[in-house]
Target: YtxH domain-containing protein
Amino acid sequence: MKTSNVVLGVIGGLAAGAVLGVLFAPDKGKNTRKKIKDKSKDLKDNLKEDFDSFLLEMEEKYQSVSENAKSIIEEGKSRIESELKKMQ
Model:
């Protein structure tokens, strides 16, 4: 999860730098607004892709943990049944 935070931080920093660069660049207001709009759209698309990847990774981890838990539960049940048979 730390990698995701780093990626989001880097993307956020790049976006902030791009917006500041556009704001301080000498250009007409109309052009500047268009550049900000375009950069914002790019940032939104990148964040959506990163978030989708993050969700997919979390889903895979959940499935793995769920499968491991089921396996442990089945093993525990088997051991209990085995011990109960020994006691009879």
